[in-house]
Specification:
With 271 residues, this protein is an all-alpha fold. It has one domain. The protein contains 10 helices and no strands.
Length: 271
C-alpha cells in the first residue's frame, strides 16, 4: 500500500471518528439529561393527570434505560470508542427494541413522523462507529468472569417470574392503556436488556468495565424504587427491591474485582 493511500485512509478514519464523537456526545447528553433529570425523580412525584397511562414503575425503567443504559453509555464511548464495542452492542439492541415498540404502537397512537428525527441520526451514528465491523463479534478481552456470569444467571432466574407476569399482562391487555401502548412488553425488554448487559459484562466484551458499573447503578436505583413503592403496579416489591440492591452491590464489587485482577494484562484497555 502506497504512502498516499495510507494518508487518505487515516484522514477518512479521523473524520469518521470526529463525526461519531459529535453525534454520540449530543445524543448521550440529551438522553442522560432526559433520563436522569427529567424521568428519574418521577416515581416519587404525583401522577400527571395528562398522562394517566404512565405508571411510576414504568418511569423507573425508562429513567434507567434512557439515562444510564443509553445516555451515560454513549458518553462513555467518546473516549477510545474502538475499545467500547460491548457498549455499542447493547445500544444497538436497545435501539432495535425501541423501533419494534414504535412500530407496534402505530395502530393505537398513529404514526409520529418526529420519531425519524432521532432514528435516522441513530442509524448514522451506528454506521459511523469506529469499530462497526466488530459489533458482530462476542470475543472478550480475556477469560470470562465466572462470578459475573453466575450473578447474571441468578438475576435471570429471579426475574423470570416478573417476565412471565408482564407477558401475561400484555397478552390479556391488563390495565387498558398501558397494554395498548405495550408498556408490559417494554418491561419484558427491560429485563432482557439487564440480562444481555450482564452477559456482555461477564464475557468481557470491550467496554465491560463501564458496562458492569452502569448495570450496578441500574439495579441499585430500581431496587430503591421497588422498596419505596412496593404496591405500585409492576413493582418488584420490598423483597424484590432488597434483592435488586444486593445485586447492584454485587455487580459493583465483582466488576471492580475483575478490573483489578485483569489490570496487569489489560492495562491498555482500561486506560
Amino acid at each position: 500500500m502506497s504512502t498516499t493511500t495510507i494518508i487518505k485512509a487515516t484522514k477518512r478514519w479521523h473524520w469518521r471518528t470526529i463525526v461519531y464523537s459529535i453525534l454520540a456526545g449530543l445524543f448521550g447528553l440529551q438522553f442522560a439529561i432526559v433520563g436522569l433529570v427529567g424521568i428519574a425523580p418521577y416515581p416519587w412525584q404525583p401522577l400527571d393527570p395528562a398522562t394517566p397511562w404512565i405508571t411510576k414503575w414504568h418511569s423507573a425503567h425508562s429513567a434507567m434505560l434512557v439515562g444510564i443504559l443509553i445516555g451515560v453509555l454513549l458518553l462513555a464511548t467518546l473516549w477510545r470508542p474502538q475499545k467500547k464495542t460491548g457498549l455499542m452492542q447493547l445500544f444497538v439492541w436497545e435501539w432495535f427494541v425501541g423501533v419494534i415498540i414504535q412500530l407496534l404502537r402505530i395502530p393505537y397512537t398513529g404514526f409520529d413522523p418526529s420519531v425519524l428525527v432521532n432514528d435516522v441520526p441513530i442509524v448514522i451514528l451506528i454506521a459511523l462507529f469506529p469499530a462497526v465491523r466488530q459489533l458482530w463479534s462476542l470475543k472478550g478481552e480475556g477469560p470470562l468472569s465466572k462470578p459475573l456470569l453466575i450473578l447474571t444467571g441468578i438475576a435471570g432466574v429471579l426475574l423470570l417470574p416478573d417476565l412471565w407476569r408482564n407477558l401475561q399482562w400484555q397478552i390479556t391487555g391488563f390495565g387498558g392503556d398501558p397494554a395498548q401502548r405495550y408498556f408490559w412488553l417494554e418491561a419484558i425488554f427491560f429485563i432482557i436488556t439487564l440480562i444481555v448487559a450482564g452477559f456482555l459484562t461477564a464475557i468481557k466484551c470491550p467496554g465491560w468495565q463501564v458496562l458492569g458499573l452502569l448495570l450496578s447503578v441500574v439495579y441499585l436505583y430500581t431496587g430503591v424504587v421497588a422498596m419505596t413503592l412496593p404496591g405500585e403496579i409492576g413493582s418488584w416489591g420490598t423483597v424484590g427491591g432488597i434483592l435488586s440492591i444486593l445485586g447492584g452491590v454485587a455487580y459493583l464489587v465483582f466488576t471492580l474485582w475483575e478490573i483489578r485482577r485483569s489490570a496487569p494484562a489489560n492495562s491498555e484497555v482500561i486506560r
